[in-house]
Write a sequence for this structure.
């Protein structure tokens, strides 16, 4: 017992000495970076994610929505209650509302107290006037209606309308209501009423068409559990919608951001881990003498461990605590900077995040630093007589096994997916093996430079050529580090561009449908007179896809695939002379500008794929009693999340002339000019305007947050990359000091030495940069296609920027790290070693 | 039979050989080395550089194992012990002084001397270490680091450390090799004083004839063989 205590005291004293002597700086810095990166990212993304999810939930109106044509079993709701979930039901049905002689088919939504569970209702005093958040539902006897209903019924706020047998006072204008799809193309104007008035109205009879919307909200885990419980019990007529399903734009952005953050934080940890491994190796090598001395003085292997493991543990704890602290501060600072954008009450990071940070520190240190330190126990005591004796090199399995094990544990924790973890680890190992060969070839090729070199430069390069194995591993280490940094930076840029493109500054924020052909000119003149730019007027014809190559479309859906909604309902068909902007031809040809009435169609690629439609296939459309046969002459891809009018089918002009047609368009109108909508409604009462501002704003906020998170993570990846660079340079410092001192006693000048270093590190960086460019091109292709669903264009700039940047970075860092070699007096160096 | 005191020897080598394999083939460093050292005896191992002196010392101290023959230290056969067993034996029976002083640069003089005491869990390590440093004349340098001490002072710290555990045998490999003549002489005097005070057996490797002469016995190595063993 006494011995143990003495050992511990001794261990702490040794640690303190090492700390003062600067032996632990790299190891400690790398550890702090790893823990800071993971905890800051962990804390931040955890909170941000919850924030983003709650924003998105605010768009949907709840965390989870069960939709169906009948009321869900009472037992299902009991189960939700048992799991602590809040519940609120909305009944939605079409019904006619009246005022005097005017009547209008409307979408009635009957809600109960507590609605909406997430997000908020906004109500204005007058149409398109300033709106405010209301924290209640309409009181009994009152309703809130969409602005466009008022002109249709020739009424104003404060007057009453009739629904079945009740009179309800219109107390306000409904400016925003969350809901699935946010109200896109909901053609009938909405009326929001209290469910308490429903029975008296008597509009719902057995057999009436009612849509049940049951919203749930609660803890993430409880929701997931409930979802799993509920899913197998649903009938075909019922479906579940979650936060992601509700909004394709937001869902997609969230998903990719999460993937990016997860990947980037893993890269940061991996890089920090490599830095730790290098630091630990140097630490171990510098402690061979101590270990041999202790062995000579009679320390057993166990005693050596008892001396060094507590040091490692203390280091891990200190590093983790500091890292967690810094991580917490970093995310706190970021949240403070973003306070305007973030939802008011972000949940505080819990003690669990702290524990996970600590665990991360321990795992990273154990995985990367333990093997070299364990090696200390095997230093032969005879080393006190023969300095050249070193312990047996570690078995590769031990070194890589523990490191891979540690990474696997962390990856699994961050990605939550065993498949992704295995894929990432396998991919990294494969990349390592695959890139070792080009690294070696690059090194070989660089020897061709030899004849053209001056003596000093050759001296520097020779360093690399003389130890090809060491050099290849250094090229690999730097190359992979640069590659990781380049990849993360590349993906970041493309994600941001992609989001930017999705929602440019003047994204149309109003959709207009139901413009009648006879009003078309007047409507366009109205917009022109006010300098409002529309996105083009698209004719709309409703029709159904009746047959593909003579077969029922439903029969073409592959077994087990979901039937596309497009074949069960009437489609919005349009015609156009030009390919609409935002559409991209993927196959076939667009028709010539003078085409009139030719029986051809251009189809959306995704739908074509799912229905097995190719160029030249014949489609039949039905319009009530009429039908039309056309040949597919082109396929188009388009972005469903772009807030532009999008169509599955586009026909050439002249083909649909006999069908009843209305027109639609979209335009951008700034907040300050909202009042003009009221004028528009008065002049064109039949026209329906759908206001998307609120949704667009919310989507923008979410994308903005995601962008910031992405930028933030990049900083840590870069920091970790620099830590690797620093650790790798430090690792070879002792040997260099010695050699430098010898060369100087032999008469080499400082300038010669420095030039040699510049040459060596410059070449090293150049080769690593070339390797990184190669690796980035390869991996980016995979990553873009498989993970991020982005298009990848060859990045030629990588091929010059990475090698140049690498040469510069490694060159400067190398010369700086070895400055002592040049500065210190040879005598001091030779005596000190 | 070798002459010498009749009691059981503290160190004995019987038919000891050491062969190592090198890139150029196998190399025989020691061959057929036989001798016994009685408790309290002082023995000098001499020979030209490369004759195998350090190798022999390492074997006797249990820092390495012979490829042939048997070595006993304090009645235990080293061949039968594993590395940790030999370490335990070293902790209990052996002290070391080397040519390059092998102090830990991060520890003060006092801490360096405390090291073996602390490893063994001896109570009041600090005061015992301080006494030893006082004995070697360094009472004013307790808190100094090795780099702040001269070569002779460093070697005195190493000697204090070697005697800290009152070892049965003190092994020294060219303890004066890095020192000037005057300093070397003082170190030698110190070694023999402590040796006499504590009844320690002294086995030292040297090519300093003065030092060898002060030992009771001299074993001469040539190309790995014992060529003479005289009192
Ligand atoms: N492990 C080893 N591998 C190769 N050669 C060795 C080894 N140990 C010792 N030698 C060689 O054996 C010879 C004797 O070494 P050493 O015992 O150190 O001699 P001394 O101390 O007498 O100068 C030297 O030539 C040395 O190079
Ligand atoms: Mg020697």
């Amino acid at each position: 017992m006494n011995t143990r205590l003495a050992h511990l005291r001794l261990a702490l004293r040794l640690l303190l000495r090492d700390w003062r002597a600067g032996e632990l700086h790299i190891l400690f810095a790398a550890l702090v970076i790893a823990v800071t990166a993971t905890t800051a990212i962990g804390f931040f993304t955890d909170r941000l994610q919850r924030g983003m999810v709650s924003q998105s939930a605010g768009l949907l109106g709840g965390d989870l929505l069960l939709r169906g044509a009948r009321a869900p079993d009472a037992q299902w709701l009991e189960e939700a209650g048992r799991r602590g979930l809040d519940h609120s039901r909305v009944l939605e049905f079409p019904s006619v509302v009246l005022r005097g002689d005017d009547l209008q088919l409307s979408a009635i939504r009957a809600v109960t107290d507590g609605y909406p569970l997430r997000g908020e209702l906004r109500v204005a005093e007058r149409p398109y006037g300033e709106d405010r958040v209301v924290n209640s539902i309409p009181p009994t006897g009152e309703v809130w209606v969409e602005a466009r209903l008022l002109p249709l019924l020739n009424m104003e706020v404060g007057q009453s309308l009739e629904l079945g047998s009740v009179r309800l006072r219109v107390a306000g204008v409904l400016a925003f209501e969350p809901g699935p799809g946010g109200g896109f193309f909901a053609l009938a104007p909405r009326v929001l009423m209290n469910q308490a008035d429903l029975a008296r109205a008597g509009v719902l009879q057995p057999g009436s068409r009612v849509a049940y919307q049951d919203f749930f909200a609660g803890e993430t885990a409880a929701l997931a559990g409930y979802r799993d419980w509920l899913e197998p019990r649903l009938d075909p007529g019922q479906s579940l919608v979650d936060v992601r399903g509700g909004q394709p734009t937001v869902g997609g952005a969230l998903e990719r951001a999460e993937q990016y953050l997860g990947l980037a934080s893993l890269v940061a940890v991996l890089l920090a881990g490599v830095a730790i491994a290098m630091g630990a190796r140097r630490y171990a090598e510098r402690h061979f003498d101590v270990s041999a001395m202790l062995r000579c003085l009679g320390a057993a292997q166990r005693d050596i461990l008892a001396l060094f493991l507590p040091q490692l543990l203390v280091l891990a704890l200190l590093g983790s605590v500091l890292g967690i602290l810094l991580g917490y501060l970093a995310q706190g600072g970021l949240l403070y900077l973003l306070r305007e954008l973030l939802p008011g009450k972000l949940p505080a990071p819990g003690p669990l995040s702290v524990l996970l940070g600590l665990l991360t520190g321990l795992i990273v240190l154990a995985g990367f630093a333990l093997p070299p330190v364990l090696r200390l126990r095997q230093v032969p005591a005879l080393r006190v007589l023969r300095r050249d004796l070193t312990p047996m090199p570690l078995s590769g399995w031990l070194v890589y096994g523990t490191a891979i094990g540690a990474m696997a544990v962390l990856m699994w924790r961050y990605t939550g997916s065993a498949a992704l973890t295995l894929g990432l680890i396998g991919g990294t190992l494969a990349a390592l093996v695959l890139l070792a060969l080009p690294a070696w070839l690059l090194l070989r090729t660089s020897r061709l430079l030899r004849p053209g070199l001056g003596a000093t430069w050759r001296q520097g390069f020779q360093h690399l050529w003389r130890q090809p194995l060491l050099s290849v591993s250094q090229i690999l280490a730097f190359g992979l580090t640069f590659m990781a940094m380049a990849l993360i930076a590349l993906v970041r840029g493309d994600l941001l561009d992609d989001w930017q493109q999705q929602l440019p500054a003047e994204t149309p924020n109003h959709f207009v449908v139901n413009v009648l052909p006879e009003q078309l000119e007047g409507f366009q003149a109205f917009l022109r007179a006010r300098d409002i730019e529309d996105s083009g007027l698209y004719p709309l014809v409703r029709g159904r896809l009746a047959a593909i190559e003579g077969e029922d479309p439903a029969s073409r859906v592959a077994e087990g695939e979901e039937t596309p909604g497009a074949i069960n309902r009437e489609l919005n068909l349009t015609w156009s002379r030009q390919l609409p902007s935002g559409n991209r031809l993927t196959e076939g040809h667009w028709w010539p500008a003078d085409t009139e009435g030719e029986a051809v169609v251009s189809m959306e690629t995704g739908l074509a794929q799912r229905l097995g439609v190719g160029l030249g296939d014949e489609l039949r459309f039905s319009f009530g009693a009429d039908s039309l046969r056309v040949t597919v002459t082109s396929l188009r891809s388009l972005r469903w999340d772009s807030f532009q009018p999008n169509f599955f089918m586009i026909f050439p002009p002249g083909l649909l002339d006999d069908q009843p047609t209305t027109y639609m368009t979209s335009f951008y109108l700034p907040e300050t000019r909202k009042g003009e909508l009221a004028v528009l409604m008065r002049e064109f009462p039949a026209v329906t305007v759908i206001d998307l501002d609120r949704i667009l704003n919310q989507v923008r906020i979410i994308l903005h947050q995601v962008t910031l998170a992405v930028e933030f993570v990049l900083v840590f990846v870069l920091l970790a990359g620099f830590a690797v660079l620093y650790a790798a340079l430090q690792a070879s410092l002792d040997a260099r000091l010695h050699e430098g001192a010898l060369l100087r006693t032999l008469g080499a000048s400082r300038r010669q030495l420095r030039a040699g270093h510049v040459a060596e590190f410059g070449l090293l960086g150049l080769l690593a940069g070339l390797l990184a460019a190669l690796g980035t091109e390869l991996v980016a292709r995979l990553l873009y296609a498989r993970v991020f669903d982005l298009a990848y264009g060859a990045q030629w700039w990588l091929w010059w920027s990475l090698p140049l940047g690498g040469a510069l970075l490694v060159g400067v860092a190398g010369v700086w790290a070895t400055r002592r070699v040049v500065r210190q007096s040879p005598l001091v160096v030779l005596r000190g070693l | 039979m070798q002459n010498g005191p009749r009691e059981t020897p503290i160190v004995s080598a019987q038919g000891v050989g050491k062969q190592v394999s090198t890139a150029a083939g196998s190399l025989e460093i020691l061959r057929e080395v036989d001798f016994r050292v009685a408790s309290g005896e002082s023995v000098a191992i001499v020979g030209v550089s490369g004759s195998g002196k350090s190798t022999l010392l390492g074997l006797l101290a249990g820092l390495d194992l012979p490829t042939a023959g048997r070595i006993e230290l304090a009645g235990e056969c080293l061949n039968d012990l594993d590395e940790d067993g030999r370490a335990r034996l070293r902790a209990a029976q052996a002290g070391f002084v080397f040519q390059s002083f092998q102090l830990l640069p991060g520890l003060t003089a006092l801490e360096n001397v405390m090291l073996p005491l602390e490893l063994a869990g001896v109570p009041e390590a600090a005061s015992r270490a301080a006494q030893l440093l006082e004995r070697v004349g360094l009472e004013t340098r307790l808190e100094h680091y090795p780099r702040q001490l001269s070569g002779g002072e460093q070697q005195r710290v190493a000697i204090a450390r070697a005697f800290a555990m009152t070892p049965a045998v003190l092994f020294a490999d060219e303890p004066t090799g890095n020192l000037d003549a005057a300093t070397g002489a003082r170190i030698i005097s110190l070694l023999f004083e402590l040796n006499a005070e504590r009844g320690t057996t002294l086995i030292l490797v040297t090519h300093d004839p003065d030092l060898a002469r002060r030992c009771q016995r001299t074993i001469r190595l040539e190309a790995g063989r014992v060529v003479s063993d005289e009192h």
Summary: Confidence is low (pLDDT under 50) at residues 1-6 of chain B. The pocket of adenosine-5'-diphosphate (ligand 1) is lined by residues B 20, 22, 27, 29, 47, 49-55 (CB under 6 Å). The helical segments of chain B are 53-60, 83-93, 109-119, 125-135, 151-163, 181-198, 209-214. The first strand of chain B starts at residue 11 and ends at 22.
